[in-house]
Every structure is written in C-alpha cells, then in structure tokens.
What does this fold into?
Amino acid sequence: MITLSQVHKAFGANRVLCGVDLVIPAASSMVIIGGSGTGKSVLLRCILGLVRPDSGTITLDGRDVGAGDRDAFLSRFGMLFQGGALFDSLRVWENVAFRLLRGPGALPKPQARALAIEKLRRVGLKPETADLFPAELSGGMQKRVGLARAIAASPEIIFFDEPTTGLDPIMAAVINGLIREIVTEMGVTAVTITHDMSSVRAIADRVAMLHGGVVRWTGPVAEMATTPDPYVQQFIHGRADGPIESLR
It folds into this structure.
C-alpha cells in the first residue's frame, strides 16, 4: 500500500534518511524499530507529507503522496501520538470527534458525540468518560482516548508513535492488545514506531529496522529472533556491545 524508494532527508549537515527502501503491504501491521534519533519519526512525517524528502519517492496506492487533494489524502490516515496530544480545553468526546466536527462532511454535534462514545466503548472506556477533561484522566486512559480518536473516522491507515511510552507493563499490554484487535477488526494498514520489544511482538506482522539512515533489515516478526543481522540482534536483546555504538 505504501512504497518508499531511495528516500533521502537531511536537516543541514545532519543526514537523517540516506536511501530508505520499504514496502508496507495493505491490511498488515508494520513495526519500525531503531534507536533514538535514527529517523523513525522523520520517516512517518515524510509519508504524511509533513516533511518533504530531498530525493526519492513515496507512493500510496501507486500515487505520489505529495500530489493530488491534500485533505482527501490526509482523511485516509489516523494517528496515535506518543504523548496522547489531547486538547486540554476540550472534553474527551470533543477530542475523539475532533475530525468529525470539522471540514467537509462534518457531523452534527449529537451524532459526533454518539460516535465518540461508541469509539470510547471500543477502547474500554465508560460513556461517562466522554464529558471529562484530559487532565481528569490517568495516563493509560489518555492513551485510550488517543486511540479512540485515531479510529473515529474509520481510516484506512493508522500510525502509532511509541504507543506504550510512559505506561506501566500491565497498561502497555492492554494498549498493545487493543491495537492488535482494532487492526485485525478494521482491516487497516498499521505502521508503528517503538522501542518496546514487547509491543513489537504483540503488534507486528512485519518488522523493519532503521539504522544509519537506511532499513538494515525487514521481514516477518517470526523471523526477527533468528536473523543473523548483528544490528537487529543487538537491538532486540538490548546489548551494550555490538555494531550499534552506545554512549558510556
């Protein structure tokens, strides 16, 4: 569904992406792993067209992501942000229904609220949560609200940016389970970036490792543990010694 070919991106002298090649199949869950500062978030921004690559091509269903109707293009995506990114001044249901209340085809408030409550139920939150403000929620509940917002408009593609950051192991497992269920039920194409290997194993169909500005390895999650690639092995086992330089 999404194809990246020789994608390069630099910020001044900092070369972040140095020829990324990656194919993300439709209706599958791709997880991108790699150390901090390896360009995972930049890669997502390039796919969304928020950052323009210096060279290379990125296509969605064979069409350049930078061409055509921008609003129609973005309407195909949902996004769960790393920090939740909820609007503090809006109630929970207004956060979930943010896209539904704006732009062409905007829904009346009662209909949007009802749909928001339905999505909140889907992520395990009670209807009374709808009228609370984000500050009244725990970190895990805020993450669930962010997930409800990501699926509210029934997107074809959902990006998950470090979905379990800041959560305890139990809540992280709950979020991983919800993501896996939603991806399977909705038949969406999912792209996740994470450092959490538990999340990788719970969410992924396929895994790609980004290092040195390129995709070092990509393949089914079942083959990740047995690949001889030393970069992958060092990363997934959290070893200090190996080809990935660590600060000591």
Observations:
- The first strand starts at residue 2 and ends at 11.
- The CA atoms of residues 179 and 241 lie 33 Å apart.
